[in-house]
Amino acid sequence: MTSAFQPFQPPRRVLLGPGPSEVPPLVLQALARPTIGHLDPEFLRLMDETRAMLRQAFGTTNALTVPMSGTGSAGMETAIVNLVEPGDKVLIGIHGVFGVRMAEVARRAGAEVREVKAAWGTPLDADLLRKEALDFGPKLIGVVHAETSTGVLLDLAPVRAICDEVGALLLADMVTSLGGLEVRVDAIPVDVAYSGTQKCLSCPPGLAPVTLSPRAEAVLVARKRPVQSWYLDLSLIREYWGESRVYHHTAPINQLYGLHEALRLVLDEGLVAREARHRKVAAMLAAGLEAMGFELLVAPEHRLPPLTTVKVPDGVDEAKVRKTMLDHYGVEIGGGLGPLKGKVWRIGLMGHAANASNVAIVVGALSASLRALGGGPVCDLIKAHTAMAPFTT
Ligand SMILES: *Cc1c(COP(=O)(O)O)cnc(C)c1O
Predict the structure, then answer these.
(1) Angle (deg, nearest 10), helices 214-221 and 234-241
(2) Residue 53 CB: number of other CB atoms within 10 A?
(3) Is the pTM of this model over 0.85?
(4) Could you identify the atom of ligand 1 that is nearest to the CA of residue 74?
(5) Ligand 1 site, residue 98, Cβ cutoff 6 A
(6) Average pLDDT over residues 369-380
């Protein structure tokens, strides 16, 4: 008997959206290595090395630093369910989709949640956040460091100052900053941070690095009730990743081979060089798009280098443009989410994919797709594009 099904062959794509991002060959090769046992001494060695590298990437010495089995959202859920008990006060700063999700996760964990909102495309207003924090007295303040839905990078220092003033823990979503920018968890310091493998770490989706400061770990240990999620319970998972190696769940072995290799590549390049590369190619992209007549959503000082949001010109069907880019050029970019749906494109230049060739590819595919669709205001853009000056930084 032979199956009626053929092996799946993914099409050739250039992934320049909000994630997943392109995975380099060395990481793909690592993923394909033979699976070994999850308690094999050699696998335990890989676990230890992976944790050591994760600490470096996060800029921390936190003992409790582990990759959770799940995507970035599992990291978010881990942070909340381990530190929040029913009835706890949680203040979430919302400047995009992922802040909305964080507030929802906190509500489902039984927290009393208050929200401070910013217009999408702008960072949180620290004065508003402080006012609310002083009035509310939260146990934890959660914010998104790199808001992938809007392309805003948030300065965490003022949020830390507010946390210190009211005695709250600081939770930061670093899904799109870890591996792309120096996140400096200990220098800020952040009490609990999480990330995902599929953005600037250039690994497939499937793991969620999480780190807890000693203070956050003490809050976990002092809980009155057990963590509501057995699967995400860090008090159990830290035993598996710690000296005692107590079985909790089977680690996704090959995913961890991939993360180990991806982190090795990040640290080989160096965090400083890596941030500089992301900043340089993001500036090239901005220059190229602006030369074509596009407007960017975010003011230059608040832009998130790995993710650029471009305003869709009036009269342009943004989904058609994305479809043309994918069908004709194999280039994937993202559309807007929530209130930005139909209004922006999201272009990711993340990790391995943050290079000048991809700037040329995405700018070229975008302008050619607009030209192919033709008409109205698009024509003005095309005219501007033909007169476009070379873009470099
Ligand atoms: C992608 C992303 C997430 C969610 O990660 P998944 O891997 O999709 O679960 C959370 N926060 C931010 C800022 C993200 O960009």
Answers:
(1) 120
(2) 19
(3) yes
(4) 9
(5) yes
(6) 68
